[in-house]
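Hello, quick one for you while I still have it in my head. A protein chain has come my way and I'm curious about its shape. Can you walk me through what the tokens say about the fold? No rush at all, and the record is pasted right below.
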Amino acid sequence: MRQRVIVCPIIENNGEVLLCKMANDRGVFPGQWALSGGGMEPGEQMEAALLREIGEELGTELQITRIKPWTFADDVRVKTYADGTKEEIYMIYLMFDCVSSNRQVTFNEEFQEVAWVKHSDLSNYDLNEATRITFNKKGWI
């Protein structure tokens, strides 16, 4: 089984957190709301990987003004690729609290929608299991 280290930003702006609705045909949680994030490349440092993933998935106009390591987690997930193939992966998640100075998001094909959501409204979204666990640990749901 392949192992991946995943950097995952929890991006907040004015009391709301950024959620991304995953594409229906790919990813670990197709069609569900999640946090952005992705795998570190060999030799890449954590913060550099985090900023690269934010830029790739959410666009370079989203300005991150604060990054603070928060926690880590791990699990085994099945990832579905755009061509329909699946792979079981052991994932290690490095979670970061982030603050953005704006809300200018241009998301890529991994997502079908994004939303800035108040903590009190998070339970109204079809959150994937990992995101639900993360928000529960934060005391938001």
Notes: The helical segments are 46-58, 129-138.
